[in-house]
Design goal:
Blueprint (H helix, E strand, L loop, with lengths): L22 E7 L14 E2 L2 E2 L5 H14 L4 E6 L3 H14 L4 E2 L15 H7 L3 H9 L11 H18 L3 E7 L1 H12 L14 E7 L2 E9 L5
Parallel strand pairs: 1-6, 4-5, 4-6
Antiparallel strand pairs: 1-7, 2-3, 7-8
Length: about 220
Amino acid sequence: MSDTKTETKEYHQTKYAPPAGACDMLLIRHGRTMPAIPGESFETIDGHGNPLLHPEGEEQAVKVGERLKHMPISAIYVTTLTRTHQTAAPLAGHLGLTPRVEGDLREIFLGDWDAGLYRIMAAERHPAILRAHENHEYGEIPGAETTADFHGRVRAGLLRIAQAHPDELVAVVVHGGVIGAAMSIASESRPFSFRGAENGSISRLVIQGETMTIRGYNDIGHLD
């Protein structure tokens, strides 16, 4: 009789890895900003409200930097608005990187309500806000950018970054509306399906060519 034992093959679950040539993208929402005050307007940049970070938002930025400082991030992107630069600063300091600006990832333009009035109108449940939510259409707000135009430029900005960073991990500090748009585009869901990412949260997209895959949404474990 033979003492030879037959080896049994084992088939384990696989661990996810981005496909070759893909960009692994961390979408970070900027920290909490200063509040809107009736009768006062935020300063603006190119018509967009530009509130600075609240002290709590500055703390959130520090926590984001601590969370990500050991990850192999090759580039950091911000938008034209100051709050993204402030949020990226701690991480950029840890990694020795200079953030790059991607203008198409600036926040949705809210027209007549952009310099802080939107927050007040939302709190008061203005009919235009209710219509916007019901119809998934920012264009219900007076003078605002349409959802289609907003999603078009967000998609273009994301693809531009992805094409510049194949097989790399990048951090992109953006806005709540942009994260919602990115998740909606990637999942092909209704435009407002992912509204509400927390300040300082981290979401994750993997982009290969024009294909976007969601790998995480609204991670706030570092903020607890």
